[in-house]
Amino acid sequence: MAIDTIVADKKAKKMPMIRITDILDKVRAFLPADDLARIMKAHVYAATVHRGQMRLSGEPYLSHPTAVANILAEMKMDGSSIVAGLLHDTIEDTHTTLEDIENNFGKDVAFLVDGLTKLSKIAFSNKEERQAENFRKMVLAMSADIRILLVRLADRVHNMQTLDYHASEEKRQEIARETLELYAPLANRLGIYWMKVELENMAFSHLNPQAYNALYANVFSKVKEREVFTAGVKEIIAQEMEDAGIAAEVEGRAKHIFSIFSKMQRQRVSFDEIYDLIAFRIILEENNKTMCYATLSIIHARWKPVQGRFKDYIAMPKANKYQSLHTTVIGPNGERIEIQIRTREMHEWAERGIAAHWLYKEEDKQAGDSNKQIEKIRELLEMQQEIDSPREYMSHLKMALFSDDVYVFTPAGDVKEFPKDATPIDFAYAVHTNVGDKCVGARVNGKMVPLRYKLQNGDTVEIITQAVHQPSRDWLKIVVTSRAKSKIKAWIREEDKKRTIELGRDALEKELGKNQEKLSSFLKSEKFSEIIKANSLENTDALFAIIGKGKLSPKSVVNRYLDREEERHEANAKTSSKRKDAAKHDTARVSAAGVDNMMVRFAKCCDPIPGDKIYGFISRGRGIVAHTRTCPHVANVEDDRLIELKWTTKEKEVYPVHMRVICRDRKGVLADVSSAITSQDANIAHAQVKTENKDMEAICTFKIDVHDLEHYRKVVGAVNKLTCVLSVERLRGR
Ligand code: MN
After folding, report:
1. What distance in angstroms lies between residue 222's CA and the mean position of ligand 1's atoms?
2. CB within 8 A of 718, min separation 6: which ones?
3. Mean pLDDT throughout 690-696?
4. Which of 49, 215, 280, 609 is deepest in the core (most CB within 10 A)?
5. CATH topology of domain 17-165
6. 124: closest CA among 98, 156, 150?
């Protein structure tokens, strides 16, 4: 039996041509009659559209989809999967449309064929391990219905079986590598052991024919030499099982060539040092875990177990839900032999993996929704115990829990992973900061898309850049990756810094101009160096920057330059005897959307002061203009065009506020109210009084300078204390 297995490995390449009747005979046992009719119809359909096409083997093309459908029939898949197997290449290789498939075979089949067509566009070239894992995740993510992946795997099995006919050696190597690194691990992850073994062996025979052939010959001769021994061991085990009254099948089979090769590589040993070439297996007919452990103790009573070789995958199943007991014992002749113990049901799962789902879960098949299948995959992925590093475990778990991630290609064919809703801008920043900053558009799968486009699994994304282009603040609203966000914010900060420098430079130049002085001469002067030193500044830009930020007034710089000692220090509102207008505060520093120290212009209409809730209105040309939310000028503006601003001004500065005070008209009200205002250290920039004779009321309007809202409230409190005052009101939206 062991020899048969190996020979089958080798002979698998030369398979007889499959007839549709072979498939129908297989599925008759487990599929209803209408499925048989659909399969017949799909076969005729495929024969028609693929007519005249040939495979490289010289066979009619139809032989390929038929062989794929046959594999799916052997896997006992559902009718739609087998039909999809027959039709899987029709969209790509013929003039058939998806619509046509849907009209003839229904939505379910069309959905599978569409998924298969998309999957077939994934080209995996020789990639490093990290990329290989990304490809695997991408294929999983794209297989919205797990049947798509299963048909794809069956397709690959047949392509590998006929790979010898591929003319180009390079192409053969490429396909074999893709099989080994992408598809065999996926088969393993889905628990389909026979497929993993077959794909690995076939890929290995192409990638390393010398090693494959040498190993093949070695295993063949050794297994043959040990036939008597193998039969003896099987005999003893079978007898023990019979004595214990446990119904079981005993197998002794050679391990597959690629796994022996991997073991030799991993353990750096030669073929002669591999002692467990033959694996014995006891398959219990009854689905009873306790009996598995009972069998284990029978084996251990008969032969001495080797320390540290026992593995309980029943209590702790493998990542792909594989369950079995593994032990190594010192058998007859004092040789080590490996024995696996499992129930028939565990065995079915071990061989067929997720494909067993269609055989056993009849009720799930009725429900037919892909959610249950995805659930199954999640279960698979959540039980990662085979995985070595915690980091890898986490990334798989994340994949299982948030399969919302999308996987897209770079033009070079690398796969990049993004969170759901990621845009081409996120992609651009993932490539390079420069690509992000200069991104003006994107082509996805060859077509132009807006920058708001949401990336989809399998998209190939190409970014269009322009050297003079700059990021936009609006991008912050559509990007989802933290990398893109932080890069855009960094650019905005840098931009604001530049603007502050310009602002300071302009202000200084203007102030010098008033005094008939030139900036260029100032910059060459000794006073300039003095000022730089006195303020511990690094360079000229730093001087412009602190002027731009309002930390140093241009006037004080000019005074110092011209040696006007008396006015060197900037006066503040409190000590100023002058009634200076606070209009210089038509700009202020605020933060918005996480960006600090932005310069904004204040709206003249509503006089926002620190403490007021302020909102920025983005106007083309003038940048951001700040208003209070109650200002009539923005009352009708939609919320999404306004950004909430936060005051960041720390120094005590003054801001203008307009207030209206209504008093009973009597002599001296203006003087009383004025002194109440100044008692709170607020400067009066302007005052006006009007008398309404019919009500005997005086209406006083003041423009006053306050530090902030709290300060203003103190002023209002003091004014309200006056007995003549009827009401105090802040004026906005003039
Ligand atoms: Mn195909």
Report:
1. 37
2. 676, 677, 679, 680
3. 72
4. 609
5. Hypothetical protein af1432 (1.10.3210)
6. 156
343-363 per-position pLDDT tens digit:
998 888 888 777 766 554 444
pLDDT in tens, 526-577: 888 888 888 888 888 888 888 877 778 888 888 888 876 444 344 333 333 3
Determine the distance separating the centroid of ligand 1 and the alpha carbon of 67, expressed in angstroms: 10
- The DSSP annotation for 90-137 comes to HHHHSS--HHHHHHHHHHHHHHHHHHHHHHHT----S--HHHHHHHHH
Q: Verify whether residue 93 is a known catalytic residue.
A: yes
**Candidate list 93, 174, 348, 502, residue with the active-site label:** 93
Looking at domain 221-367, which CATH architecture does it have?
2-Layer Sandwich (3.30)
Distance CA 421, CA 443 (A): 17
Quick check: 368 pLDDT over 80? no
Give distance in angstroms: CA of 341 to centre of ligand 1: 37
pLDDT tens digits, residue range 208-257? Answer: 999 999 988 888 888 888 888 889 999 999 999 999 999 999 998 888 88
**CATH topology assigned to domain 403-480:** Ubiquitin-like (UB roll) (3.10.20)
Q: 627 forms bridges with which residues in the sheet?
A: 615
pLDDT of residue 208: 92
Same fold across 17-165 and 221-367? no
Q: Is the pLDDT of residue 44 over 90?
A: yes
What spacing in Å lies between the alpha carbon of 362 and ligand 1's midpoint? 28
CA dist 424 and 564 (Å) reads: 57
DSSP characters over 156-168: HHHHHHTGGG-S-
DSSP character for 725? E
What confidence tens digit (pLDDT) does each residue in 482-533 have? 889 989 988 888 888 888 888 888 888 888 888 888 888 888 888 888 888 8
pLDDT exceeds 80 at position 586: no
Cα of 157 from ligand 1 centre, angstroms: 10
Domains of the chain by residue range: 17-165, 221-367, 403-480, 490-561, 582-647, 655-731
- Describe the crossing of helices 33-49 and 79-87 by its angle, rounded to 10 degrees: 10
Ligand 1 centroid to residue 64 C-alpha, Å: 7
CA of 89 to the centre of ligand 1 (A): 5
Quote the ligand 1 centre to 666 CA distance (angstroms): 99
All residues at 6 or more sequence positions from 367 whose CB lies less than 8 Å from its CB, including other chains: none
Which tokens hold the place of 130?
A: 């990290």
Asked whether the predicted pLDDT for residue 367 surpasses 50, the reply is no
Mean pLDDT of 43-70: 90
The catalytically annotated residue of 4, 25, 92, 379 is 92
Residue 436 clears pLDDT 80, i.e. is over it: yes
Active site (annotated) includes residue 338: no
Q: Which residue has the higher pLDDT, 385 or 410?
A: 410
CATH 3.30.70.260 fits 655-731, yes or no: yes
Confidence class for position 339, pLDDT limits 50, 70, 90 = very high
Q: In sequence order, what DSSP letters do the residues of 150-212 get, joined into one string?
A: HHHHHHHHHHHHTGGG-S-HHHHHHHHHHIIIIIHHHHHHTT-HHHHHHHHHHHHHHH-HHHH
CA 358 / ligand 1 centre spacing (Å)? 22
